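Hello forum,

I keep getting stuck at the same step: I have a sequence, I want structure tokens, and every attempt I make locally crashes halfway through. Rather than fight my setup again tonight, could one of you with a working pipeline run this one for me? It's a single chain of 258 residues.
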Amino acid sequence: MEPALQAECLVALLGAKFALRTKARPITEAEISRAAKLPDVLKRRVGELLDASKASKQAGPPELPDYHEMSDKLVAGADHDVLTEQLVSIPDEALRFQATQVWLRALNYLSSIFPRRSQQDLSGIHLLDPSPGEWAEWGWAWRLANEPLFCLDLMAEGLLIGNEVTHLRAMFPLLFAELCGTIDDIRSDRIAKDKDWQMPWWLQKQICTLLGISPVSPTLLADIEGAVKASQAQTQQRNSALKITNPGSTPSQRVAEK
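Reply #2:
Ran it on my machine without issues. Output:
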């Protein structure tokens, strides 16, 4: 597995919140091993999804953190010294570098969409609480940042919408491409075994939402294959661009150099 994808799997396992810790907790060998197996977990989950005959029951909205506490954490960002201590147990330097980039990318994205409104009076500038709708919408992004495979739960419930797809692609682009490719592979396998096999309409619409294509397209399967191939091509280009020959000074190196 390429270090870039393995890094996304590691962050997917531990969540964006791991990079916001104020006290270091080194990553374990067991966690690294579990992250490497995430594509297999993805394949199993997608197989279960495509075999579903009807949408499952709703799991409910995500749990929301305290607004002002989360705002302060995102403004402060990741503590690089703490993050370095947490990553020092990873023997692969390229993986350490890539994982750092994935965590920072996720936090930067979450910060960029964080609902902030302020009001100024004689005592200064005050942060106003967001509306329930704004905070709930950010909550879905926070849930996906900590549990990206939750998108499969949303699909199983028939509840995935474009906003969640945008969040997932922004924070985990390679894992998103892996998901699209896995769906196409398993769908093709089902058709090869049974030419009459079809996905239920509710699931077709969910997969179309994931891929960003119209659910009423007369050439649905061709559109799905085209979207998957385009996503895979982008992934290959991104992997080529992310190959590290000399990652430079990583956070762990900077600490060692002090």
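Residues 3-36+44-250+252-256 form one domain. If your local run keeps crashing, start a new thread with the error log.
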